[in-house]
Amino acid sequence: MKTWLWTAALAGTLLLGACKKNSPGTGTPTAPGSTAGLTDKVVTDKLTLPWEVLWGPDNKLWITERGGKISNVDPATGAITVIATLSDVVSRGEGGLLGMVLHPDFTTTPEVFVAYNYDKNGTYTKKIVKFTYSGGTLINPVVLIDNIPAANIHNGTRLAISPDKKLFITSGDAAAASRAQDKNNPAGKIQRINLDGSIPADNPTAGSPVWSYGHRNPQGLVFVGDRLYSSEHGNSTDDEVNIIQKGRNFGWPNVEGLCNTDAEKAFCSVNDVAEPIQIWTPTIAPSGIDYYNKDAIPQWKGSLLLAVLKDSELLQLKLNTAGTAVEAVHTFYKGKYGRMRDVAISPAGKVYIITSNGSNDRLIEVSGK
């Protein structure tokens, strides 16, 4: 889960085989989930285009807003405390201040990792910056990686730290689909670096941060056991949930969703393409994900929870025991709160969702009755 305390094992290479055939979900109508055992409430409605929500070691929700603000929110009172406003953030279209993650040993190593877009000599660009949290604010910025293409659309960007303390970064194709298949271009990739910005010796290609490629616009990322799951926006068809694997090609733009047309089958066979475990056509616009494995809401245990933008809902993706397939999909709060951007889970099992409607965006708490 996306809390500061990581309990998952290292995300290693999951060799499911090229063009794996796991009978993924096909986006057929989802069943309405029962809210009989749930209580939902608005914690605050004073956010503006929030992107990331995390449960912090201070028992607060840490939130980024695309305009450049990092805050924490008291879940009991809804009080918002601004931690920092990053002056060089440039919010343009879907860009701005995006992903954030806290060091897994935050109490002894109070580091905050953020990803944001800025203007670099007239070119819209993304960088990953590490800050130190001290005295209630962020100090000592260190740029870990720079020169990731950015655009008004398709920026990614979600961050996650693996149990062996590697930083994973999702990046969209930045509105140029051909970048996704170019291993020398950081757009359309999931990258993996050390927490000091250096490149791990066991990355797929020596000296390269690229971990996987062929991505269009992945906006969700979470570790579950020894697996790394990502949610990804499709084009006009085939939104996806993928299990991310070392060195694998995820197909875009040559493959959308499954390897099921003649051209796609040929490309998949030659290029070791990994298929998604869940797809949606028509598209729903999936964004942030987290993994629920608490007892507080028993019906959600063993599920990915997915915040959905276009279809304005929270989806429960019940995983099979092995974690390799989605057994069922249930929808919650469809249309009630508008576009949902990200989701986080507290140690006590409460679920927090942020919306992405514009001004007066909300932080919502869902708990078991």
Automatic annotation (TrEMBL):
Among Pfam families, the record links this protein to: GSDH (PF07995)
Q: Which InterPro entries match?
A: 6-blade_b-propeller_TolB-like, Glc/Sorbosone_DH, Quinoprot_gluc/sorb_DH_b-prop
Q: Which residues are in the Glucose/Sorbosone dehydrogenase domain?
A: 48-359
> Matching PROSITE patterns, A to Z?
PROKAR_LIPOPROTEIN
Protein name, as recorded: Glucose/arabinose dehydrogenase
Q: Which organism is it from?
A: Mucilaginibacter phyllosphaerae
